[in-house]
Known about the structure:
Layout: H1 6-17, H2 22-74, H3 77-88, H4 96-108, H5 111-136, H6 138-141, H7 143-178, H8 185-213, H9 221-237, H10 243-258
Helix pairs in contact: 2-3, 2-5, 2-7, 4-5, 7-8, 8-9, 8-10, 9-10
Keywords: Membrane, Transmembrane, Transmembrane helix
Transmembrane segments: 12-36, 154-176, 188-212, 224-256
Amino acid sequence: MGDISYTDINGIMELIISGNSIPWIILVVLTSLWLFKEIRIFHLKNMDIEIERRGQVLKVYGNLEFNILRYLETEEKEILNSLHEAISNSYSFLSRNIFKKCEEYYNNRSKDKLEELLVLLREEISSIHHEQSEKIDAGKKYAIDYYMQYLDSFFIPGVMTVVAIVQTLFGIYLGLEMIHPQIEWYQKLWTILRFISANVLILLAYSLLNVISNKNLEIELKNWFYIIFAIVSFFLTLYMDYLSIIYFAFLIYFVFFKFKKMIKHRC
């Protein structure tokens, strides 16, 4: 990758100091503020959707629990039909484990399988209700929890805004690199691979933070090794060009084959 020299940096600083660049600076600031506002609205909307979704799941699970208990107490055919109807209408809300347990029940149609389904259902109801309560009642317990939740609504959109701006600027720089006549084709290839890898790594880091915050990461030494290796290796590609291809291949393997195995599948 072509290096930016001291002369280039000095020229950029002189341009910023001069009055000619002020409109561009204002444009960048206004664009950044608008982008932050839109990302924050999107982030808050997603948080509301998540809470609403959990509420819907609790409602569906509660209805299933009620129908299972009714049938186990009476064993009436009419109630059994209502139970089967409730199960079939709840497929879009069922977790992976609950869905599998429903399949086992349908294959066996035994009372034991239904009782196993009830036990698993109650476990997930308790877990979802606990998470729901933490999201809604964080400010009612401790002041620090309230302020952390409030700052979170600014911090995450802020980070995403900075990342978006950096990606845009780096994309412009990449475009200028590609049309530079003195740069060899293989150097352009290294640059493209680094750019793609950096973007994938950013998305991976964001996904990883969500997984860790939701306590869905399988805590194993080899998983942490993969994560640290993925981060450190990227910086090595900045000094050793030929590693860009190897790292890119590793990153594709890690994202599509390894990362999903590191996540606890509760749903």
